[in-house]
Fold:
Amino acid sequence: MSFPLLTVTAAVPAVGAILTAAVPAARRTAAKWLALLVSLATLVLAAVVFVRFEPGGERYQLTESHSWIKDFGVRYELGVDGIGVALIALTALLIPFIVLAGWHDADPLETSSKRWRPTQGFFALILMVEAMVILSFEATDVFLFYILFEAMLIPMYFLIGGFGDRAHSGSDENAAAQRSYAAVKFLLYNLVGGLIMLAAVIGLYVVAGNFSLTEIAEARANGSLEMATSTERWLFLGFFFAFAVKAPLWPLHTWLPNAMGEATAPVAVLITAVVDKVGTFAMLRFCLGLFPEASKWATPAIVVLALISIVYGALLAVGQRDIKRLVAYASISHFGFIVLGIFAMTTQGQSGATLYMVNHGISTAALMLVAGFLISRRGSRLIADYGGVQKVAPVLAGTFLIGGLATLSLPGLAPFVSEFLVLVGTYARYPVAGVIATTGIVLAALYTLVLYQRTMTGPVKEEVRELPDLRVRELAVVVPLIALLIFLGVFPKPLTDVVNPAVQHTMSDVQQKDPQPEVEAAK
Amino acid sequence: MNPVNYLYLSALLFTIGAAGVLIRRNAIVVFMCVELMLNACNLAFVTFSRMHGNLDGQIIAFFTMVVAAAEVVVGLAIIVSVFRARHSASVDDASLMKL
Amino acid sequence: MENLIALLIGAPLLGAAVLLLGGRRLDKAGHWIGTLLAAVSFVIGLALFADMLGRSADDRALYQRLYTWIPVEGFQADIAFQLDQLSMTFVLLISGVGTLIHVYSIGYMEHDERRRRFFGYLNLFVAAMLLLVLADNYLLLYFGWEGVGLASYLLIGFWQHKPSAATAAKKAFLVNRVGDMGLSIAIMIMFTTFGTFAFGPVLGATGETSEGKLTAIGLMLLLAACGKSAQVPLQSWLGDAMEGPTPVSALIHAATMVTAGVYLIVRSADIFNAAPDAQLVVVVVGAVTLLFGAIVGCAKDDIKKALAGSTMSQIGYMILAAGLGPIGYVFAIMHLVTHGFFKAGLFLGAGSVMHGMNDEVDMRKYGGLRKYMPVTFVTFGLGYLAIIGFPGLSGFFSKDKIIEAAFAKGGTEGWILGSVTLLGAAITAYYMTRVMLMTFFGEKRWQPDAEGHEPHPHESPRSMTLPMILLAFGSVFAGGLFSIGDRFVKWLEPVTSFEHGHPPISAGAITSATVAVMVVGVGIAYLQYGRRPVPVVAPRGSLLTRAARRDLLQDDFNHAVFVRGGTHLTRSLVYVDHTLVDGVVNGTAASVGGLSGRLRKLQNGYARSYAVSMFGGTAVLIAATLLMRAV
Structure:
């Protein structure tokens, strides 16, 4: 029996979370360092997974399998394919930056009681989310995945509701009400999605008799498991609904701006860059893997929804007055691209979608964390409260601009590679959709540059005159992210090498071939 | 004597008890009416046991008596403490457990 | 030799990285580093040029492949370069004129505290433009294409504290993005049609697909070219881009950026040759822009904006020539190069004038400057003579060839195009003479500004005049050098192919007509601005003049349709999102809440009412059981 690397990778942050939570009230700084160390240890383990994974080998590697609930055939089954490896790497990579960026976000106010331990809780919850997300990328048992999918809502709920952004307009009570509204909305949306998925999970068990992704997929492929067309479609819809809420896809998106607006910037990054990726990841792995025929059946509708998400999210981003909500709507637009790439059912589209998940995580983290630094300085989230920051804090403005340029997919930065692949992949199968999605690049430029112009350029506003530039801790967050954006923008090969074989497997799941170029097809 | 008459008696007692529970406000009286209903049931059990020549009914009657005794202990304690706190034994006054 | 190609781009890119990351330590040496690295690029370019001349005409292209950029099944995008005669021409223009502009900026930006950063951006601009012309596939070209957009954004908005500059920069980027959309769609069509987007395979396989596909690709490429080259209908950013420091304007208008569109069309010659419909649209766009820019240039009092209108018009000539097919490609590029010299010279001259005039840009407040700035006057004057096509100077040769080619298009089209280009030449002569007269001739018209500082016009420092002198040499001699023995045609012919056009009237007649309309244009301008004193306050002017001052209402149109419409759209969408999409969900929640509110009334707290429901329930259950039995 080999070393259970995947379990350990998920267990380290889980244990770390418990330890962090147990740090005494007075040793707040120790809790922070502990959390940072644990997240770095997880990063090392994720790097080991990345290196140990052989792109040319088996589809699922580093597998582990133990019986769990015998009566229902539930197993503790883990295994990663290239897509999972890439997303585990992304998660493990982002958490140290999230911890570092949120270093002071949960310091207790001076008026709070001495025994109050919010800091410990904050970092413990972040590590808990990390553990669950990593495990959900590893789970190849549908039931296990479902449990994690739901369980990660609990720490997220407390992170959103318990640790709001201290920069808000209006009174404290008002802000608290807003925050708990956002947290409850987040929870309810995702619970409803999860409930419908639960029904589908049970339905799947009734039809298939077990929960193993690999077994069911194999049985479906070799014809030993027949599924009535309508059954397959209903089950697909059940799964897809839950993932579409999480992703989030129009019109199930409205929880995201609230949650990202009210949460602290690092938690907002956690939501959009890490937790939401579980939704798009699950579309690839479960929707396409288990229900290939139904996926093809639903594709036209989903492509339309994705297109609406792209254009609608971008247009709403243009109309926002709150920096964080603007980034949230931009994310909705980007998730539209990811879903579009997945359901274009071409190699380029799906590779692009997978890369997009990783790249969007990094670019949103860069933009959002810098925005968070800015907001914490001035104590306001409103765009109109800023102006001329460039003159006062040039490094902050410069990094903000690079984050923005990544968001608008400038070539040379990582998101361009993925966005272009998605566009090309979509165009190959649905030319009209490809062209409509391309308008997204103009709108992205619009909302990013308008944001930059209003906050960073122009005459210096009185209130921002004393704004300090980025500090060492903040630079330690931003610089590696930007370096990574540039590196993956000009040399995405390390990532594509891992992702390509997995995409080929998914393509064979749905039994789709890329459309042949016209000229070659003629030959 | 025809055992069926005991069943009639049991039904009568049960009805009296039920009416008492529904009509009376005094907690003690309500409580006694509950006891009356329980004992009506006991009577019915024992009668059926006799009619069918099966001991199960009598055993259940013993169980009921044990449970009733335990219930009396808890119930009376609650009633007494409520009376001490509120100086009233009316069940309608104790209507705080609502949304 | 081919390994040097990457260095062409690498040198200025290194400069940009060093200068932008180096921090304040490099403030003292930053401009030297930037200039040096741009010069290094030029020197490497010269070395490669010498090497290229040493080989036979068919064997001049060099290729360098670095690595695979995006390796995805069926989608191989390489970082690979191609240096042929066309790219070489651009490399020399970009790095040569670019270096001169670097030198000029040393003096021009001397008092700007962010000079180091300015040079970093300039280097970035040069690097991106070199990447654009050296790429061997369309995706890498797109990389450079957007890099140019970014650099122009940073440079146009260099003085970000001015809201107008920040807005102009944003506008330039956005309008360019609309064009970029065209380029990315073109690449998508290429990929689905040819399975690749490398120049060789795509351009070599144009015969194997339908004309409709090629027309679509061509039109999308044209859209891209319109964005970068400021052609109608995406021309509106160019005038505002004058908000940037003047060396930036020179760089954008002469060596980089606006020339990219012409490059793209000439590079894709095979596609356009096989798609006559797309070609026709190219010609029309060129002709319309040619007149549009010229008319705008006539009405502007801002010296830089007048020159900007002129650029638009001259690029219109090039696009028109490129749309004519093999009879025009070479001349489009030739005009591009000569234009690079004289337009850079004119802009640097304008910058020199502004430098001596406290950054005043209104020509009505100049006058008689030839006495104060002799070097600027002479160099600007030579650039002026070149652009109006004075016989013997650069512009004469290149423009005359385009006019000839336009007539040679044949039929009614040829006559229309020929007349348009001739008319454009007349207007060019008119507005450039106007600029010349208002700036350097007549009486001095400047007055002390609000704070009582009177401008003291003076000649600019050596670092600024030297580039102007060198560019003036180019303006005078380049055209003749290229034309003697058809050198330029022979140089580019292997890449772009060339056919001799046969105009319906003799070449001599066309040349005479060109000179004649030029003289007429100059004459009218002289009558208006040379014989009479120029009023300091602009007269109201005719309807056309007023419209032209407002850039022929293009901005008003954009504002009314896109800005206002877009604002309304986003506002209403925000409302819809809040009330409708979110409202449905919140409404569901509210109705569930209302239902539970009613249900909770049953929980009244009276033990006896609970008892009633228990009895009732039991009774119902028993009754049901009995009934079931009975049935």
